[in-house]
Amino acid sequence: MKTRLSSERLGEKSAQALLTNHFRERYHFNPAMTEAILKDTVFVRTLLEAETRADGQIIRYFPKATEKAGKPLKDCEYVAVRLTLYAPGDDEFMATYGPKALRRRKVKRICEEAIAQGAPATQEDLAALFGCHRSTIIRDIAEMKVQDIKVVTRGDITDQGRGVTHKRTILKTYLLGWSPTEVAKRTGHALESVERYIEPFFRVTYLHTEDKTLAAICRLTKLSRGLVEEYIALYQELAADPVFAESLTKRLQFFNEGLLPLGQKGGLR
User: Would the pTM of this model clear 0.85, i.e. be above it?
Assistant: First the structure.
């Protein structure tokens, strides 16, 4: 299968492409009609939404966090996110630390803004915004994580890649600070399913950190050996990731103290 260029994928997420696809699919408008409507739309937005963006902000369209990895972009639901490319203090930061540090400061800011608006940015999106290669963004994010600087992109939310389970996606979203109800909405799972993943994870992790044997953990949690091993491996992965390690430690402590509102720990000691 032919691999599409980055520019082609990014083009499908532009406002013009989204509206064109919508008018074509819903109303069967021809290209000339679509172009006329687009011009009118831009004119109306200019008149009515002049104050919706602060100085230094732009609008970009990203798929909602709940959209699954691998879903065709044209079929995704999008969010118009406001991103701050320039903010007060950027000039002083640039003068003090240089252009590379400024880019990383902006990458972190934009990722946080996109997450807060329910539509995380991809590495491709960031590369397009900053006019650099995707490898530059990958290197920036990797180096920031080494420095314990939290940067979350769409890949961290959707867990794009082979062999990825729903558990990892749900737990990562939960550790980013969302409640189980919000996690359910953002991942497209039922609340019962989300809680069914979160609670056993903390039960297994708690016992594992108490140096219980694998056999003991299976007996106390009534989970299969394979599932217990999967949760332990996931715990080790998250504990080694600076993005999730601190939140994981805090929530594990809450569970240990009986403050995590996800079932009871009775009989686990």
Answer: no
